[in-house]
Amino acid sequence: MSAHTSASDDWTRFVDQWVERARADDRLRYLARDVEVAFTWRYGDRALWMSFRDGRLDEVASDAHLSRTNAFDLVAPAHVWDKVWQQVPPRHFQGIFAIMMRCPEFHLAGDHLAFAQNAHIVRRLIDLAREPGLPYEAPALDNSGLSNIIGRYLRVDLADGPHRIYVEEAGEGQPLLMLHTAGSDSRQFQHLMANPGLQKNYRMIAFDLPLHGRSDPECEVVAGKWSLTTSYYHDAILRVVEELGLRDPIAIGSSMGGEICLELAISGASVFRGVVACQASSHIDGRMVRWAGHPQVNESLFNATWVADLMSPSSPERYRDEVWWQYSQGGHGIFRGDIDFYSGDWDARDRVSQIDTAECKVVILNGEYDYSCTAEHSKETADQIAGAQFTVMKNLGHFPMSENPALFLEYLEPALEHIQS
């Protein structure tokens, strides 16, 4: 492969290299299995039409040769795509869903359903437009204590009936309760739980919410009915704490897990020593999405793709792949029902100022690449909580504990030390 060429330097050569990589890419070949769709990239006044047939990139046409069948257009000025296609793009330009939410110059024209059905193809093509690899070595985390993680089940009665709750534990010392994100499960914390250094000082506990991961339904379940509320989430956590007999635990969570950490600091302060709320604010608008459970959209592919752009492009690929894989495994309607809490029922804008950090310490951490709960969102919330600590985590995104656990640990350890001081 010749040296990478940017679109702004030589459009024709850039397209040729892009298409060559796309046609040779195994990931794209399997993601595109049985796909038949055509769409156009609008790069300022230039354009590139791509057609997939029988799972492969069958035809391409550029600029003047575009009188073809087309499902949708991805439209943006050249300078926007130049940022998106950088080897390590700037924050909020790391992927298609990032610019859809945070870049007003981007426009999706045509059939939005067809786009949702093929968003995984678009995302992989963006990856292939970039120069391969990263310009630096990503850190590694010592997870040699993996075999020390022990799993078991609790029987917990909640408002909708009895549940089997799957719980994993590792380490000894200060209890550290780890809360997963919407639509996922406690595997997100596995790398941290396997770290020998953390195992020496903390009794780490992570559990799967009802109907998530390995917490299979004990009571009757109507598929697609799940809709998480603040009160249900809060009560489930307190019941697990009670069942495990935890004393003065520290709660840590990201995304909806970060939001509920703030709720625990408000209404569960007598139970918790402190909280580390990641990617959290008092309210988040704009994250409800109809495609997450749409009958004409592959839920497994769409949900995993929708969250993948929330991560930092500089996080190690193998960890980002894990996040994608875990999100592809959720039960029908679970992710969408969790978003009912994350971007709906949860609203503490008139309550976060009530948090007493003398009773329950609060640290808010925000990965800079998160375009859902941005650093600005988190800082605005932190500023309303007297005594709260706030830090922006460079080169991290929405899933810091799982997308780059070694880098996240550099921010987590000082946060835990502050809470215990």
Give structural notes.
GO terms for molecular function: catalytic activity. Residues 176-409 form the AB hydrolase-1 domain. This is Pimeloyl-ACP methyl ester carboxylesterase. This protein is an alpha/beta fold and 421 residues long. Strands 6-7-9-8-10-11-12-13 form an eight-stranded mixed beta sheet, with helices on both faces. Strands 3-2-1-4-5 form a five-stranded mixed beta sheet. The protein has 16 helices and 13 strands. The chain has two domains: 11-129, SCP2 sterol-binding domain (Nonspecific Lipid-transfer Protein, Chain A, 2-Layer Sandwich), CATH 3.30.1050; 146-420, Rossmann fold (3-Layer(aba) Sandwich). The longest helix has 16 residues, at 405-420. It is globular, with a radius of gyration of 22 Å. The model has no long low-confidence stretch (mean pLDDT 95).
Q: Could you name the key traits of this structure?
A:
421 residues, Nonspecific Lipid-transfer Protein, Chain A, 2 domains, 35% helix, globular
Number of domains: 2
**So how many helices?**
16
What Rg is obtained from the alpha carbons, in whole angstroms? 22 Å
CATH-wise, what's the superfamily of the largest domain?
Answer: Alpha/Beta hydrolase fold, catalytic domain
Q: What's the architecture of the largest domain in CATH terms?
A: 3-Layer(aba) Sandwich
CATH class of the largest domain: Alpha Beta
Reported for the largest beta sheet, the result is: 8 strands, mixed
Multimerization state: single chain
* Secondary-structure element pattern, one letter each: HHEEEEHHEHHEEEHHEHEHEHHHEHEHH
Query: Roughly what is the average pLDDT, rounded to an integer?
Result: 95
N→C terminal distance: 54 Å
State which percent range the strand residues make up: 15-25%
* Strand numbers in spatial order across the main sheet: 6-7-9-8-10-11-12-13
**Pairing-aware structural class of the strands and helices?**
alpha/beta
Low-pLDDT ranges: none
Number of strand elements: 13
- How helix-rich are the residues, as a percent range? 25-40%
Overall geometry comes to: globular
Protein name: Pimeloyl-ACP methyl ester carboxylesterase
Organism: Antricoccus suffuscus
Pfam family, one: Abhydrolase_6
InterPro entries: AB_hydrolase_1, AB_hydrolase_fold, Carboxylesterase_BioH
